[in-house]
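From the shared-data thread, chain only:
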Amino acid sequence: MAKIIIIGAGLTGLSAAYHLEQAGYYDFQIFEKEDQIGGLCRSIHQDGFVFDYTGHLLHISDPEFEKIINKYISKDSLNLIQRRSFIYSHDTYTNYPFQTNLFGLPANVITECITGFINRPKKLINYSFYNWVLYKFGAGFAKHFFIPYQSKIFDYDIRKVAASWTGRFVPETSLEQIISGAISSKPEEIGYNANFFYPKQGGIFNWVDKFANQIKTKIYTNHAVRKIDIKNKLIFFSNGHTEKYDYLITTMPLNHLLKLSREPSNQSLKLASNKLVCNSVVNFNLGLNRPDISDKHWIYFPEKKYPFYRLGFYHNFSKQVTPPGCSSVYGEFAYTSKTKAQINDLLICSLRKTQELLNFKDHEILTQKIIHIPHAYVIYNSWREQNLPKIHKNLNLSKIYSCGRYGEWKYSSMQEAFLDGKKVVGEILNKIGL
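Structure, as tokens:
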């Protein structure tokens, strides 16, 4: 038995283990359900190509996180990249973000966006994402980008999605910026991801692996949680192993945690698990026998005729993730409740549309990798907004700390995942009295 058990060796779990050791505390164990650490920050090596579990980019703004990167990773092993991202609509590429880059779009679209911005509501009726967009950007921007794009990426009624997730993810604008971006193409460094880092070799897992190598405690892989007995503080794993704990740090998806937990007196946690909603994503990857299939980093697709919401190009993050003279493209489409047949149809359509858009031939496809991600984008619905703090409070009373992107049921970056691990360790060690 260890006093502290960590479930999940993704970035948040690894960070928790690292910070425990840095505090001189070794009475803990860490378990991972997969046969490899990293969570969604993993990379697949296939036929000379490196594909990530969707597009993962490294943003560094926190001093503590930057210190870790400099100490263990070295920025010399990372490419510092200035974003080249676009929106494709009306058969036109426009610079990201849409709300400051209307140049090149049809005149009627530009007119609708500008007049809609000027005549936008003066008051926010309620805090749904739909009304928030109308309040911040107006009907034109809502119609031509925000509503169709977010409907596609969430696959959920955005009138029932709160706007609390937007924060740094949706840059605001002004009439001056809109007009300037409508009369000329002037891409600016707007938004949190205007610049980012990416490993020169090995894909996004490269830096995560280097960080994980700093952890001395053994990480037990192939340990999937089957049940958690909250009253007796026991974890039952699918491989037959059991583990007792005093404090539990878990980074598994919160809905799974609630479903697998057994309470002393009732089933409220299990009932709550069904109320937490997220979508799933299919990430398709192609290795192409053609150099420079695109000069862009990624492209957003708001229009319904494209099933995917984004395409990206790893060879523009690093030339080392493809064989010489080759390119790679990844794409993503989301769903909430579809049959296997419907998902397969969407995949076939996505691959065909990608081929048409980028104009490559069948014989140029050297390799293909399809990755299914069951937990992708958390849906900030009204139930989540009202009940999430209560869920975490009740878990904490039982000395269970659910953290990280899916543990806290939120959006976050790799930097935030690292800081989440540090934060939870601080809270627990403070309770222990260290």
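Residues 58 and 197 are 5 Å apart (CA to CA).
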